[in-house]
Amino acid sequence: MKRFGLTSIGLLVVLAVLVATTSAASPSRHPLGHRNAAVTGLTIRWDIISFNGNFANPINPGGSASALAADGTKITLTGSGTFGGPAKKVTGGGNWTTYAASGAQSGTGTYKVVSLVSFIEANPQSQTPVATDSIGDVNKRANGAAVLRIAYSDGSQGVLTIGCHGPGAPPGIFEGIATSKGFKLYYEAQDPKPGVDANRTLFHVGV
Fold first, then answer.
1. Using only C-alpha atoms, what is the Rg of the chain?
2. pTM score, whole prediction
């Protein structure tokens, strides 16, 4: 019994090494089969888009998205940028505005992307329904989630999560943004509503 136990442990160790080696030998694929920009060498563009949900209208950059904190305060962000690529560079940022629970504006400024934490593509977006894309190639639109470290103009730091749940997306991805600013967590992403130009995002993979 003792010999069997040691042999079993040895086999598990060998198996673990083989799995790790296989993963290291195939860095371009996420373990679940989804693309990870941090290792593929692809450049990904992200946008908080201007789009009211009517597919007769074009998708444009320059939109806004909001999230709530547990105390009812709100943050609204604009922004766009890129990450990944051969040099794994990050670019971009945007504007931020915070609001008290009463709705009164409590702060405003800009933010800059500092680094990429992760990006996992869920799947390419379906081309049905069709919408004119003024940002990039419609065949490069993707659903997924990105996490970025950001620096606010008032000296605070944060982590921005961008979720894109577009046409054909699997369940489990929210559409919009969630972020932290200092110690405050604006983690309640605001859902997009038909006819309202807010709380929508988009990724283009391989720009």
1. 20
2. 0.82
